[in-house]
Hints:
Keywords: Hydrolase, Protease, Signal, Thiol protease. One of its GO terms (molecular function) is cysteine-type peptidase activity. It comes from Lactobacillus apis. The chain has helices spanning 32-35, 111-138, 156-165, 175-178, and strands spanning 15-18, 21-24, 41-45, 52-56, 64-70, 74-77, 79-82, 88-93, 96-99, 103-105, 183-185, 195-199, 204-212, 215-219, 226-230, 239-242. The protein is of the alpha+beta class. The chain has a 6-stranded antiparallel β-sheet. A 3-stranded antiparallel β-sheet has the order 6-3-10, with no helix packed on it.
Amino acid sequence: MKVKSNLVKFTTAAALTITGLGAVNAGNSNSATRHVQAATNKVKINYVPGYGVNIWDDYNNPSFTGERVQHGETVDILSTAVDAKRKTWYQIGEGKWIQARYVVDANKKIKQQNASNTANSVISSSKQVNKVVNAANAVIGKPYTWGGNGPNGFDCSGLAQYVYSKAGLDISRTTYSQVKKGKTVSMKNLKPGDLLFWGSASSPYHVGIYVGDNQYVHAATPAQGVVKESISSYFYPSVAKRVLN
C-alpha cells in the first residue's frame, strides 16, 4: 500500500527518543510503523568488537534469520516498532529487524563506548585465562584414563575439554575437532591458555594446555597421568591455537 508522506498521521503513537533517534511507540503489527516506510536514518551497530547482533524476521514473536550485522557496520533504518515488552526495534530490510538498543546514531562519535567495550572484553578474557590456568594446575597428579574427561581421570583431549569448561567454554571432545578452534599462533608468542597440539596440524594425536613460563599441563601417559612439563625440542608441539583473546 502506497501512502504519501504528507497524509501519514500518527494518531495514537507517542514519540520517544532511543539512542538519539526518533522512535514511534507501536504496540501491534498493524501499527503505522510496521507498514509505513519511515524517512531513512543511518545508524551504526554498537555491540562488542568482533561480534554482531542478530537479525530477526519480525519484532513480534521474532525468529532468528541466521544473519547478523557486525559491530561498527552502518545500516539504514526503514521503519520503527515497539513490541509487547516495550522494546524498540528497527527494520533494516524486508523481513529483517534488529533491536534498537544495539545501535547509535551513525553521526555520533562512539570511540569512548568502543573503548569501554574493548576494556570489558579484555577483562573478561583475562578472567577466563585465569580460570583455564587454575583448572589445569588443579588437576595435576590425576590419573590418565582412556576416554576420561574428569574430574577423577583424563585422557589428553578430555583434559582440555574439562579445563576449558571451567571457563565456560566448550571446545569439543577430540583433538581433531579442538585443533579447529580459535586461531593459529606462533610458538614464539604463546600466552597462558593456548592449546598445544602434537602430530599433524589438521589431525593431531595429542593436546596440552600452555600455562606460562614455557610450561604446559597435559594428560601424558597411563604411567605419568596429568603432569606439568616444559616445552622441549625432543617433544615439540606442531601447532598452537588461541581460543581465548
